[in-house]
Amino acid sequence: MSQQLLLIGGGHAHLAVLEAFARKPLRDADITLVSRFDSSFYSGMLPGWVAGHYRLDQCTIPLPPLAERARATFFRDRVIAVDLVERVAYTQSGAPLPFDVLSINTGPEIDRDAIRGLGEHALSLRPIEKFVEAWQRLEARFSGAPRAGTLTVVGGGAAGVEIAMAIAHRAVTSALRLKVQLITGRRGLLPALKAGVRKRVAPLLPKIGVRVIEDEVVAIGADRVQLARAGELPTDVTVAAIGAAAARWPRDCGLRCDARGFIAVNSALQSLSHPFVFAAGDCASMPDHPRAKSGVYALHAGPMLAANLRRALAGRSLRRHIPQPVALYLLSAGARNAIGIWGPLTFEGERVWRWKDRIDRAHIARFNPDAPR
User: Fold this and answer.
1) How far is Cα 132 from Cα 284, in angstroms, rounded to an integer?
2) pLDDT tens across 262-286, in order?
3) Could you tell me which residues are beta bridge partners of residue 370?
4) Hey, what domains does the chain have and what are their CATH numbers?
5) Which residues 6+ apart lie within 8 Å of 336 measured at CB?
6) CA-CA-CA-CA torsion for 139, 142, 145, 148, nearest 10 degrees?
7) What beta strand segments (E) does 229-361 contain?
8) Against a cut of 0.85, is the pTM above it?
């Protein structure tokens, strides 16, 4: 009887897993991929798409064809619970999905309770697929509008900065009638990055049309945000870019998680509590080798995850995966301009953008050979 491998989520690592199984099919194992979306939007191209540099079909990877090439069955559904004793996952529609080995690579969520009113009145960057749908509605609402609206981005990290610059660029290069303000939080602009990056970004923001406010948002309403020090600010749209949060169901089902709720794994990407469970990407945490939440690490983990899933199904010993200590970051800066970060080094310009563009397009082409160029 064939063993059952269940892949939950269509994240970066699972794309590489499916690619590996397409090249070399699994023996005596049936693969099921379940994802709440039928395509994977590449997060690295989101600012470029919002800024108008790409079409939607240039940034997405359809999951059913990728699953078919890997001889996997695709289910579009959302997993809401897992029984680790019976080894069955349950979806929102009620479908039971049995497994012998489970791999989890779901994207990050946003803590809807982090700020009062966020869940009711803010548009979240995560999941990206939901943001993409909402952004298309916003474009229709404010394109050629009789008056300019105010869009407020909450969060001064890389995601908030990139999306604020992308929207501001789109506003000055199209009929989109939006003014953009960025509220960084008490830690200020790009607190997790080096001072050299902040020195490059800080002057770009007002130049591109982004008003920067260093204050803490304590509440979000339908038409205003409440700040800790500066009172209320009117807003027509609020976008929350406050960082990754963990889904609740992994902890609820009994998987060992870190203090923030992310699935704790060892260097083989294997759960510390349940050896038949694997996890990679933003949903996972490696206590012995902590790294920032970034798609870069998920992509690099994918081939090793595929190898260890193959080995686990065959009852063989697992291989170790140690994330690289330094990762390359390329931040979009609105126009066809980007800022590169490699350890302590920073660099920017149109050439950096072209470099990023080549990397991003190659990523899409790797998993979606039919994507338009």
Assistant:
1) 24
2) 999 999 999 999 999 999 998 999 9
3) none
4) 3-36+77-109+244-314 (3.50.50.60), 118-243 (3.50.50.60)
5) 53, 350, 353, 354, 357
6) -140
7) 232-234, 237-240, 263-264, 277-279, 284-285, 328-333, 335-342, 345-349
8) yes
